[in-house]
Design a protein that fits this description.
disordered N terminus; DUF7790 domain-containing protein; 328 residues; alpha/beta; DUF7790; globular
C-alpha cells in the first residue's frame, strides 16, 4: 500500500509540473497591439540578450506558473521554462525583434529536439531554415531579410548560453531535454505569442491586462530586462501595471546595469559584453503598491534602493518593502 501511495505521489508531482495541452488559450491572443514605427534599435544585436547570469533568478521564478509577459527575445523562454508558464507574451517595440520572435516560434514548432532547433540557426542549415520561413509566412522575403540580419548574433548567443550553463551548473531549455520539450509544446499549442508593444505605450500592455481579466487568467511573471533604467514611470505605465490580475506569487523580474556601487553586477554577467547586470525580483503586488504612491519621477533603481535587500556577492536584490515600512 505504501508503495502504491508513493507511486501516486510521483505521478501527481509530474502531472502538475508538466505541460498540459488540453486547455484552450486561443482567446488570450485576442488583444489590441501598438503599431510599430522604425527605430534606431531595429538592428540585429537587439534580438538577443546580453544578460549572462539569468540563473541567479531560478530560486525565485521556479514554478510560478500562470501567464508570462516579457520584453525581448529568447531569454524570456529560458525564464518561462523555469517558471512553467502556461502562456507567454513576447513583447517588443522594435519590428525586427517581433519578427525574430515569430521566426523563433516557427523553428520551435518544427523542431522536436533542442538540437534540431539550435541547428536551424547554424550556417550549414541556413537553406533549410529559409525554406521553412518561405513556406510559413505570407511575406517571406521580409522574414528572410530579418533572419539574415540576426543570424550571427543568434549563433553567438547560443554559444554563450551553452557556456554559462556549463560554467554555472544550471539547466535551461537549450541544454535540457525536458525544459526544451516544455517550450516546444507551448509553441506547438500556440501558447507563445510575439506581440507588438511598447512599455511606455497606451495599447498593448493595458490590453494584455484586460484580456487576462476577461478570461480569468493571472499574470505570473513580468520581465522588463533593463528597460526601466531608461525612464521614469509615466501614468500610462502605472495604470497598465496596476491593471494586471495577479496572485501572491506573481513577480517582476528586472535587471540593472547602472549604479554599480549600489547594485554590483552579478559575477560572470559580463561574459558576452563589456558590462554586466544586477538582477532584481519584486512581488507584483509590492510593485503595484509603489506605483500607487504619489511619487514623482519614480524609477526602478529608486524602488530597489529604498525597498530592497541586496545580496552584493551574488548581484541580486529582492524588493519587499515600501518607503519607511516593513515588508508587505
Amino acid at each position: 500500500m505504501k508503495q502504491i501511495f508513493s507511486s501516486l505521489l510521483i505521478l501527481l508531482f509530474f502531472g502538475c509540473s508538466s505541460f498540459s495541452g488540453k486547455e484552450d488559450y486561443r482567446s488570450l491572443r485576442e488583444l489590441n497591439q501598438e503599431t510599430l514605427v522604425p527605430t534606431r534599435w531595429d538592428v540585429g544585436n537587439t534580438t538577443v540578450s546580453n544578460e549572462d547570469r539569468l540563473d541567479v533568478l531560478i530560486p525565485y521564478v521556479q514554478n510560478v506558473g500562470n501567464v508570462y509577459v516579457g520584453v525581448g527575445s529568447e531569454q524570456n523562454l529560458t525564464i518561462a521554462a523555469w517558471a512553467k508558464s502556461e502562456f507567454v507574451y513576447l513583447m517588443d517595440f522594435t519590428r525586427v525583434v517581433v519578427s525574430a520572435n515569430e521566426i523563433m516560434v516557427l523553428f520551435l514548432k518544427e523542431s522536436d529536439t533542442k538540437e534540431k532547433f539550435l541547428s536551424l540557426y547554424k550556417k550549414e542549415r541556413e537553406n533549410e531554415a529559409i525554406s521553412l520561413i518561405e513556406k510559413n509566412f505570407s511575406n517571406p522575403q521580409s522574414y528572410v531579410g530579418v533572419y539574415k540580419k540576426i543570424i550571427r548574433y543568434i549563433r553567438k548567443r547560443h554559444k554563450t548560453n551553452l557556456k554559462t550553463a556549463e560554467l554555472y551548473h544550471y539547466k535551461m531549455f537549450q541544454t535540457d531535454d525536458s525544459q526544451y520539450e516544455y517550450i516546444h509544446n507551448l509553441a506547438k499549442a500556440d501558447r507563445i505569442y510575439p506581440v507588438k508593444g511598447n512599455l511606455l505605450g497606451k495599447v498593448t500592455l493595458k490590453s494584455i491586462g484586460d484580456t487576462l481579466r476577461k478570461n480569468g487568467q493571472k499574470l505570473g511573471v513580468i520581465y522588463f530586462s533593463n528597460a526601466e533604467e531608461y525612464f521614469y514611470y509615466p501614468q500610462t505605465f502605472k495604470e497598465s501595471i496596476q491593471n494586471f490580475p495577479i496572485t501572491d506569487s506573481s513577480i517582476v523580474v528586472r535587471t540593472l546595469s547602472v549604479k554599480k556601487h549600489l547594485f554590483p553586477w552579478s559575477p560572470g554577467s559580463d561574459i558576452s559584453t563589456d558590462f554586466g547586470f544586477h538582477y532584481c525580483i519584486q512581488p507584483i503586488s509590492n510593485f503595484q503598491a509603489w506605483l500607487a504612491l504619489d511619487r514623482p519621477k519614480l524609477r526602478s533603481d529608486h524602488i530597489m534602493e529604498e525597498g530592497g535587500k541586496t545580496d552584493r556577492s551574488l548581484g541580486i536584490t529582492v524588493v519587499s518593502r515600501l518607503p519607511g515600512r516593513k515588508s508587505l
